[in-house]
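Help needed: design a sequence for this.
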């Protein structure tokens, strides 16, 4: 009978909560057609056609250390690479298949290089691993919801042996957990229809993973996908429960809580443009200003932000993404204290922005200046100890102006006479509380 050990669980989650911000990298053969990582499925492309990308894969600009440096410069604390996506192409040297990067013209074990480069930058490392494999004979083809051959009656499943597929899939997870040193995150993707939980022989898989990688953090997609929360969040953890929930292309409107009201760990995975894998014609990039505020939103709701980049067929992170990462990094270089190790404030969300909190320190993220002194919603004047502009360290006085004399129970900060905020994206006011207020930290702002 499985017994969930919350203490042990919270111990292994500690670094993840501290980190708050990570990089997702989707990279593989699909960078060559440059129409996103689902290209084979969307276009119902036969494997033989797709193999031309395998023969052509020779990314001249491949430099995992540049990826890791870009993540670090942006202020990210961890980095996750697609070791294998749904197409089945392995970026690692699996003994169980020939469909791997060492057999392409590149001839390298990308996962090994990547882990080495990321660790050298002091980043925590994770691997994404697709539970689905469209290149394997024993994975359901005809009639499956997603398989490229789903509509091809010649690809019926009579001779396919799903258990043989599972032996193979478990074997690959074992390789990743045995041959590449300590992994900090395993990011499985994904369950659907009847393929979930024990259909993946999940108890067996997770007990093997936990044995080989005792501290690894595992996501919830052996049970669900971007949809669904998983058994831990639902309050009845299975032996293969995920350690964190993985909302995709959305930030949970109210944060996430289990049925007992306990906060649930989560990580929102978000693309910079509209695709995970490189797409040559996708210029729908989210501005850095927006992404900075979304990172703050995640932290204020007790979650992490996993921001994706899709390197091109030469192995380079697109210029647009690099510029965005650099702008985020510039903001982080002055304001990271309001992100790392921070969480919800327990105060209502203010009209002018959001609040993050670490212990007795509140970080007021001001997106939109007010007329006159800034109201510190939920705080009375005697609760304020000291206040500073986070980026400069200069002291900010509490306001004593007559203009708010009608609101004596509310504290106000005097940001100064200039109505234009020093940082138009997010000016952070650090507020150190007098240590008597005991706010309820489990609420979200
Ligand atoms: C999805 C997609 C996938 C992407 C992932 C990231 O489930 O299948 O292409 O890797 O989400 O969250």
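Sure. Designed sequence:
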């Amino acid at each position: 009978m499985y017994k969930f050990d919350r203490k042990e669980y919270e111990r292994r989650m500690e670094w993840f909560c501290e980190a708050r911000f990570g990089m997702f990298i989707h990279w593989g053969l699909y960078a060559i057609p440059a129409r996103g990582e689902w290209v084979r499925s969307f276009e119902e492309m036969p494997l033989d056609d797709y193999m031309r990308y395998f023969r052509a894969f020779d990314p001249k600009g491949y430099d995992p250390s540049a990826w890791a440096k870009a993540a670090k410069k942006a202020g990210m604390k961890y980095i996750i690479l697609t070791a294998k996506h749904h197409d089945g192409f392995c970026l690692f040297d699996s003994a169980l298949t020939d469909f791997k990067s060492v057999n392409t013209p590149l001839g390298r074990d990308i996962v090994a290089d990547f882990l080495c480069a990321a660790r050298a930058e002091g980043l925590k490392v994770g691997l994404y691993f697709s539970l689905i494999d469209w290149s394997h004979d024993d994975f359901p083809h005809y009639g499956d919801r997603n398989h490229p051959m789903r509509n091809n009656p010649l690809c019926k499943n009579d001779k396919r042996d799903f258990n043989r597929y599972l032996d193979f899939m478990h074997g690959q997870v074992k390789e990743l957990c045995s041959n590449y040193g300590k992994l900090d995150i395993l990011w499985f993707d994904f369950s659907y229809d009847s393929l979930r939980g024990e259909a993946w022989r999940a108890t067996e898989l997770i007990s093997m993973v936990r044995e080989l990688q005792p501290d690894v953090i595992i996501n919830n997609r052996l049970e669900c996908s971007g949809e669904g929360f998983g058994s831990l969040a639902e309050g009845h953890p299975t032996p293969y429960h995920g350690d964190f929930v993985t909302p995709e292309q959305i930030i949970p409107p109210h944060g996430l809580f289990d049925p007992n009201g306990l906060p649930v760990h989560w990580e929102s995975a978000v693309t910079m443009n509209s695709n995970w894998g490189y797409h040559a014609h996708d210029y729908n990039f989210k501005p850095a200003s927006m992404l900075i505020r979304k990172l703050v939103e995640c932290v204020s709701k007790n979650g992490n932000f996993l921001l994706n980049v899709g390197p091109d067929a030469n192995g380079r992170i697109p210029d647009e993404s690099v510029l965005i990462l650099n702008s985020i990094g510039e903001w982080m270089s002055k304001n990271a204290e309001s992100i790392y190790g921070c969480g919800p404030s327990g105060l209502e969300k203010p009209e002018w922005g959001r609040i993050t909190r670490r212990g007795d320190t509140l970080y007021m993220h001001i997106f939109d200046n007010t007329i006159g002194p800034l109201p510190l919603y939920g705080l009375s004047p005697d609760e304020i100890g000291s206040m500073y502009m986070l980026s400069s360290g200069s002291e900010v006085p509490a306001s004593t102006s007559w203009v708010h004399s009608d609101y004596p129970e509310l504290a106000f900060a005097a940001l100064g006479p200039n109505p234009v905020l020093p940082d138009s994206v997010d000016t952070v006011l650090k507020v150190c509380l007098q240590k008597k207020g005991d706010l309820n930290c489990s609420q979200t702002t």
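The pocket of alpha-D-glucopyranose is lined by residues 26, 37-38, 189-190, 225-226, 248, 269, 276 (CB under 6 Å).
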